[in-house]
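> tool_call: predict_assembly(chains=two)
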Amino acid sequence: MAQNIYDDKGFFAEYSCLPRSVEGLAGAPEWPALRAMLPNLRGKSVVDLGCGFGWFCRWARENGAANVLGIDVSEKMLERAIEETRDPAIVYVRSDLEHLELRPASFDLAYSSLAFHYIEDLRRLMSQVHRTLVDGGRLVFSVEHPIYTAPSETKFVTNSSGRATWPLDGYLDEGPRSTDWLAKGVIKQHRTIATYVNTLLDAGFAILYIEEWGPTPEHIAAHPDWANDHHRPPFLLISAQR
Amino acid sequence: MAQNIYDDKGFFAEYSCLPRSVEGLAGAPEWPALRAMLPNLRGKSVVDLGCGFGWFCRWARENGAANVLGIDVSEKMLERAIEETRDPAIVYVRSDLEHLELRPASFDLAYSSLAFHYIEDLRRLMSQVHRTLVDGGRLVFSVEHPIYTAPSETKFVTNSSGRATWPLDGYLDEGPRSTDWLAKGVIKQHRTIATYVNTLLDAGFAILYIEEWGPTPEHIAAHPDWANDHHRPPFLLISAQR
């Protein structure tokens, strides 16, 4: 079972203060890019893998989805999701994505934001997601970018020319990384872009689009501290079709 | 027109001494991975984009290809390719890949080794390659990996823990990079993995497989100086189908 860090009291308190937890989708700078990859949701059945506070579930309903299933392993996150949702067409289920069983041909869209990099057995999960989609159904997801998850030290270093550089190492060493992000010892799974893509292809998906997300000049003007994200993208976004 | 550095006298002399120039395919450590991505060539028509000394053209014929067209912009390389080829089913043509026109539905396989990162207009070339393949035809190619082509300084740096790290910057800044590799001022085009993939998809290809190539433990045992290539892959290999 993957670590359930979101139910760690300290982590949860810190996570709850992030812009994306306070403002929802509008607080996630990569959201417009991810939204642009979504199909029309009108009348569609949607599953959100790692739904957290349920922001996307509610957005999907507001944008025409017929019904939405939100799945998360975190009890604390689902408690708040349920509190903030007044819509009988949204159902939340607590489940570990590592062991999830989904009914065949049940959804038009599987969505996931920043959850798959916690998963140890991505192959199993992608096979489940493929199975649960109807023919032509879509998988749209984001993960932390492999260049971001790889290194043993994850702080920018100023080089001899005064430039900020990302000290990349271990890119091809796939496996767990322990980082101190909001709490000590948060475990994420590093895998390469090739592994994400090939795992999808092996599960039977066709790749539709990939984005290595970085801040736009407008983002950087508004948040100068994001400038370094242009040197190494923080997020990888993928759209695939069954 | 892309720079034709291979006809630079100094560059050519240096390039001719590389293991891959002396030993051919066996001198290229990524060749077994690229070979594993090839379809069965028996009876097939093959085009090699950036054929250099013609090693792959001859290999393709030895492995059953019916005919092979080798294309390169370098006069010096084609001179040696022609000298070393005694096979009327292999034809060499001098052409700049930037302006190449290929006949529709003429090839079963388009192959390219470490040439596309010199191309400025990849979109145009991919469209030409798609057009020249028969339905179901394959494109298999390698390029320098985007993590390798991106940085402003391309030497490993030892960090405070004594680890070798690759000082990545500018990953999302696509465009030319001037490097001093075998000669001064060699121009390569940096683009992201997403751009390679999306350009193929936009041209009408389906992605079949991606490899971010790094040395195996056996490679590193035989060539200890390759160990750092495990930290940032030197090559990106892609297989796609029309």
